[in-house]
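A further point concerns the way the authors explain their paired sequence and structure data. For illustration, here is how one protein appears when written out as sequence plus structure tokens:
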Amino acid sequence: MESIFSPPPSSLYPVYGPTLDAKRVIVVGGGIAGLAAGLGLGLTGHQVTILERSNDFTEAGAGIQLAPNAMRILERFGVLKQVLKEANTLSRVSLRRYADNKELASFPLMPHAKSRYGAHACVIHRADLQRILVTAAQAAGCRIMTSQRVVQVDAFFAARVKTADGTWYQGDLVLACDGLWSGIRRQMEAALGSKYETVPTGDAAYRMLIPSQRLGAKPQLQQLMGQDTGVRWLGPQGHLMAYPVRKGAMYNLVLLHPVSTGASPHRGVKARALSFCRGWSPLVQQLLSTLADDDITEWRLYNNKPPLRWVLNRVALAGDASHCMLPYLAQGSAVALEDVGALVAALTCTADLDLALAAYEEARHERSARIQADAHHLQQCLHMQDGDEQALRDEAIQRAARDRDAGCECPDLWLDRAWQDFAWGFDAMEHMVDGWHDLVAKLGRGSSE
């Protein structure tokens, strides 16, 4: 398989040198973006403190996908070996009809992704990735403080935040990785004369994990779980994504469906999931029947608009706080890691913090907004009612799989060759370093020092 890079990007900047001017960085939020920021900034010489609102890093979440654009950042940050030790590598993705389990098409993942994009692709339990990042960030000198709920940022957006107990934390930079419900973004938007709003999508996700031993003597399910394959069943008003995690010890399911009533997140919804999948294939019914009621958590899906500004003075946004990604393209963690990689790289290019932050904003806003919009578009494409439009979609999927090298467009953008080149082939750190002088010129700055 020919690579679209020469040489592969993983060999271009295997290790970044130290920052030109060490900063005190306060990271708000200890999710994937926040922990990766603590790691990357710590490795390059900054003094980092992460303020996390929860009491500890519990065994939370389910499976997540790490595309090559995410994995090359993790490789640069020195945790590739640990991630691959915990992750599952999928050889392909199978797209299937919901009613009869008929395979529409099969698309390659690994080793195709490594050959073409110079980086791995894998799936991993979120808690395992979080644990890896916590350990690595602390080893890089990052201080992680739990039970620290940030309630306010400095009124003039200096690098200062206040926690719920009244303590103010002072630094040179505040990086807000506090997610979709970001209080810091809300305060930034208000300062710009706007109102931060989250937008309901009308969809929700049932997230489920099935222990392998629970499948018992059900050969079809054992066979499904034993394969290194991701499966996407396409149905009316929803779809089901499934793949093994924890080296096959668990099977991860995400069922996207129209939102129901009740709080979010909401547990104990097995009957609702089974009701939604009435009329789906017996294999899907068998999978869902193995679940206990408390194995299923329902999460409503929201969107947010691209921010007016990513940076105000010494406060910057990253991850879901700036671009909450719907799950249809599996790019939420990847684009958050791109943000972090770009910022870390910018701070190795100049000692001027304001210039580094301006370059970060310029490099990230357009790309992240496009991926966010593409994910929103895919919601409608994947959830078509049976009929002529759905039949045309399925034919186009089959054609794209059959004539992959001919450049046929796949309606499921996640598996479209051109879209993968755009998303998976992107190197956020290389883009920042190689494009530094162009970024500086675009910003109207004559010097990078």
Notes: DSSP finds 15 helices and 19 strands in the chain.
